[in-house]
Amino acid sequence: MLSIKNLQANVDGKEILKGINLEVKAGEIHAIMGPNGSGKSTLANVLTGNKSYEVTGGEVFFESKNLLEMDPETRAREGMFLAFQYPIEIPGVSNATFLKTALNEVRKYHGEEELTPKEFLTMLKEKAKVLGMDETMISRYVNVGFSGGEKKRNEILQMLMLKPKFVLLDETDSGLDIDALKIVSSGVNIYKNPNTAFLVVTHYQRLLNYIVPDFVHVLYKGRIIKSGTKELALELEERGYDWLIAEQAEVV
Amino acid sequence: MNSKEFYIESFKTYESKLNGDSKSFLHQLRKDALKQFRETNFPTLRNEEWKYTDISSIVKLNFTPAINSTPERFTKEQINKFLFKDFDCHLLVFVNGIYSEELSLINNLQNGVVVGSLKKLAKENPSVIDSYIGKLSKIDNAFNALNTAYAVDGLVIVVPDGKILEKPIQVLYLNSSSDETMLASPRNLIVVGKNSQASVIANYRGISEKAYLNNSVTEIFIDEDAIINLYKIQNESDEAYHIEKVQATQKKNSVLNHYNITFGGAIVRNDINSVLDGENIETHYYGLYMINGKQHVDNHTFVDHAKPNCMSNELYKGILDDNARGVFNGKIIVRQDAQKTNAYQQNKTILLSKTATIDTKPQLEIFADDVKCSHGATVGHLDDVSEFYIRSRGVPQELAKSMLIRAFANDVIETIKIEPLKEQINHMIFEHLHKVEVGNE
Question: Can you give the residue range of the structural domain that contains A16?
């Protein structure tokens, strides 16, 4: 589904990604772990088209289409979704309006009819319920006055509504208490199916107890230095990153 | 003939058109104003109050006073599209500053409430008008003098003590000059008695390819415990020049909510002044200006804290694109008597292009020692991360931008108490933004 080849990217002229190679197939869950500053969030932002990140080399194909040539909205309509680490507040625009606008743009792109207001609202209420969200949040402004946990939950709600094929979770677990983490994870697990793939960016193994990855990759200084299965995450939790970094140094 | 000579010269024709009106008490006011006009020159950039606003293009033109030219006529169907709808209101329509009885609709006013045209009420109700008009607002520049000299008509609202006007009053000022450059001089008076309330929507629209000058003066008297909400929405044509001076006097426990929303006009200048002449007064100034092309909007506000325990809060927000230029000058005086004053002021601007500019100047003069005052000004661009967030959900860039602009304007717009008006202003923001986008292509 997603094929990343030798991807390199800069932020403010500084080289952050130094050649990422990754293949993600439909139905798989991949976790990207690594110490702070290793390039995890950069990867998520580059894949979704944040123009603050400059791609300097390599290529990315999403279902055989050249992803890097698309603007962010086209990537979204093609089925990419990023759950933000720090969701943005949009005062004056209600959650319902925002989601309806986004959903109808995606549907239009695929030649589908717009949802009627009633259909939309039924769907929104149903998904909000899955996430244990209060119905009043539907009419509240996007993320305004939301707690950290509510913002993350709102990201997952957007995912459930937009039905993307490829989901990036960027540190979705940061700042979440265990109850919120369980709810957010259950949202992901409900959505998981053979036609979707996930790339879970996280600093801690904790999230991976709930969203169980098929593969775990360790990102360090802009490169994947080790890949393994979920056991690798457990090992990292126990031993930290230093042994891997030392191993890497020996190899070099 | 330069424009000053032109306005002095035109006064004779104007007097001959006034018929019986030239004998009313108003006419002495006009003649005095003309005398002052003779002795005053139009402000230039050398004048401190006008240093960022070059009005030479206005001074260069001779605008024919509306009463001296052929009246423009409209039907109800024609004006319908300019109105704010979906709420019950009284409607007054002024075409080029002159009241149109047939287009207006005022019904079931409570006993003693007076709503109508200055021209008519100066005859029917001279004593009330005479005790306020020209007394609240002193002439402080050539434009005020010109307005007063040519004050034929305008809005008059007089609410006696203890009356609450349930329905807002919508005033459509429709300006149109098909033949020649036209001067409209609406002269407005709003008096609200003790413990009374009124909401007024001043809806300025223009439909002209030709330049015209709308030069208004609005005097407001708010007696003890009274509340006025005044919503000014100015969407004149791009060729228009628009000048207004608002002068309010507030008595104790009164509240003024003034909204100043600007979309139109080539050069726009607003002076909004309030004297807080009593204790426990609240004054709120909200401003939003959304301009593009070569538009120039200058807002001068003045809050005069004369007595203790009052509160003023001011929030002005600008969205400037292309080569548009904004000026904000916010003056607050806290006089020696005015202890325990709370006075806040904020001016925030978003520049959508590299060539748009804003000059913002807070001007605080504080003579009391136990007060809380603050002011702040920010200038920025639309946030890239926010735009990315919205686009990453499939929303196109143009719409993402307009959502962010709406978000920026929201803390001004959301305080509007008339829900349908709020929605329609939001819609105007979208429309205006769309116009901007199209204009760029």
Answer: 2-251
Q: What's the gap between Cα B109 and its chain centre?
A: 25
Q: Is B70 part of any domain?
A: yes
Domain at A158, CATH number: 3.40.50.300
Q: Residue B390: its chain A contacts at CB < 8 A? A: 88, 90, 98
Helix (H) or strand (E) holding A153: helix A148-162
What are the chain B neighbours of A77 within 8 Å (beta carbons)? 394
Total-model pTM: 0.88
pLDDT at position A252, please? 56
Chain B residues near residue A152 by CB distance under 8 angstroms: none
Tell me whether residues B389 and A92 touch, CB distance under 8 A: no
> What is the token pair recorded at A95?
């959650």
Q: Where are the alpha helices (H) located in A13-147, listed in sequence order?
A: 40-48, 72-78, 95-109, 117-130
The pLDDT of residue B351 is above 90: yes
- In this structure, is residue B270 part of a structural domain? yes
- Residue in A closest to B415 by C-alpha: A92
pLDDT of A204: 81
B268 with B398, same domain: the answer is: no
Residue B245 domain boundaries: 3-277
Q: Would the CB atoms of B410 and A72 count as touching at under 8 Å?
A: no
Q: Which of A92, A106, A109 sits opposite B406 (nearest CB)?
A: A92
- Residue-wise pLDDT tens digits, B70-98: 888 899 999 999 999 999 999 999 999 99
ipTM of the complex: 0.94
Domain boundary residue among B209, B243, B277? B277
* Vertex B354 angle, CA B348 and B357, to 5°: 45
Residue B271: is its pLDDT beyond 90?
yes
Per the structure, the count of domains in chain B is 2
Question: How high is the pLDDT of residue B148?
Answer: 97
Q: Which residues of A touch B391 (CB under 8 A)?
A: 49, 71-73, 76
Maximum Cα–Cα distance across chain B? 69
Q: Indicate whether B148 belongs to any domain.
A: yes
Among A42, A47, A73, the residue to mutate for chain B (most B Cβ within 10 A): A73
Counting the structural domains of chain A, the total is: 1
Residue A127 has pLDDT above 80, yes or no: yes
CB contact under 8 Å between B388 and A71, yes or no, is: no
How is residue B435 annotated by DSSP?
H
Q: Identify the pLDDT of residue B436.
A: 52
What's CA B218's distance to the chain center, in Å?
Answer: 8
Query: Distance between CA B4 and CA B10 in Å, rounded?
Result: 10
**Does residue B366 belong to the interface with chain A, where contact is any CB pair within 8 Å?**
no
Residue-wise pLDDT for A14-35, tens only, equals 999 999 999 999 999 999 998 8
pLDDT tens-digit readout, B143-162: 999 999 999 999 999 999 99
Beta B197-206 vs B169-175: how paired, if at all?
parallel
A91/B407 touch (CB, cutoff 8 Å), yes or no = yes
Question: For residue B314, is it within any domain?
Answer: no
A162 vs B contacts (CB less than 8 Å): 393-394
Instruction: Please answer whether residues B285 and B316 qualify as being in contact, where contact means their C-beta atoms are separated by less than 8 angstroms.
Output: yes
Greater confidence, B371 or A241? B371
